[in-house]
Amino acid sequence: MRRLKRATIALPMVILLLGAVVPVLLERDDLPRASGAEVPEARVSGRTSDEWAELALEARERGGLRKALSYIKTAESVAPGTQYATELRDIRQAGRRASDAGRPARRLTEGPVAHIVFGEDGAVVQAHRKTTVLPGESLWTLARNLVAARRLVPGSEVGAGDRDVYRAWDELTALNGVRELEVGERVRVPLSIVERTALADANRRDHERIVAAFSALAAGDVDGAVRLREEFEEGFALATAECLRLDDALAAATAEQASRLELERERALVEDVRDALARVPEMPRATRHSDRVDVLNGARSALSEAEALRGGVQYPDAAELLGRLLSEETRFAIGADGTVLAAKSTGVSYTQAARQAVEWVLERQLRSSGRSFPHSNEKSADETAWARYLADAARAASEKGVNFTELLEAVDEAIELRLPDPVIYFAD
Questions:
Q1: What is the model's pTM?
Q2: Among residues 106, 196, 184, which one has the least CA distance to residue 145?
Q3: Burial tier of 143 (Cβ tally within 10 Å: 0-12, 13-18, 19+)
Q4: CB of 199 within 8 A of CB of 124?
Q5: Rounded distance, CA 206 to CA 246, Å?
Q6: What is the DSSP string of 328-354?
Q7: Are 382 and 421 within 8 A, CB to CB?
Q8: Percent helix, strand, coil in the chain (nearest 5)?
Q9: pLDDT digit string (tens) for 18-58?
Q10: What is the pLDDT of residues 268-310, one digit of tens each?
């Protein structure tokens, strides 16, 4: 009872306190927010809704209705609600209008020209394209749609009493006759004066290109003539006698140019071969053996290319000489350290094989005096060097564990020899 009594007494006090606190809270909510707590304007991809709407307007003015529709929908999505309903409606109406205008344009003013005749002055005398008749169409409705297509507006925006419709009807009846049309038949549709003028101008420029191409050929500029031929804007000039004559002249000039270029290339290759044959003897084999092999291989490739340009063997003597030189050049090999690699064949002694290899490196025969003991002091420098060379060869073989005596006696065996660098022994 005592607890209940205390609660009963405290309750009015709590109510009084709440009554004092609530107005204070309400007054705080009514106070203006500090400038630092302002909510920033909503953005999508860095742009506000107004900025997206401005982009939509610019796109619509340029004719980009799809982009305009996308931009205005993005503007709507930046903030909740519908802020651009009018702009959205206008863009959609413009899109429907453009679609309605595009249908007759595609049928009646686009596509290939079925027939065209140019006058001697290059003007268009006759020109038309064809279209398929749809259910309910007549020459009159086609005339109205043709005017709409030329103006790029829907057919519903062209009045029945429009003078251009009468003119279009006159053009259509002149081409097809005054009659009732059948669904599915192909009727002739005239070209507008603007298109006829554009075709006449393009045809005139193409004929000017034909004249310029003939001038280029006369000056020897085959490539320039070919470029002019490739720059034709329309196909009407292609069937003319002038163009056919130009094509024949271009074919002949191109073939002649190709033949001349091949001949020039052949002469240049043969000159490269002659230059290589002249340079090889100037390269010491002892120090530039690999260069000699590279030059000779390059000359052989050049000669093969030169002969392939005309087919068959045109330079047999040069081919035989190159083959012989390459065979001689690869008879032995020289290592990076100057040592000579020689293949001693069966029936050849060690000294014979070594002497052949030394003379091959030096590109000369060793000089012999014909003198012997007791006139050793009268021997040639080559004979003295040869004795030292064989002694060092024997020493080098022993250091590698090879029995030099066995090498000297292996006349009936084929052996790979590695001989010392002869340059340091034999001086010219």
A1: 0.52
A2: 106
A3: buried
A4: yes
A5: 12
A6: HHTSSEE-TTS-EEEEEPTT--HHHHH
A7: no
A8: 65, 5, 30
A9: 444 334 333 333 444 444 556 677 777 667 777 777 777 87
A10: 999 999 999 999 999 999 999 999 999 999 999 999 999 999 8
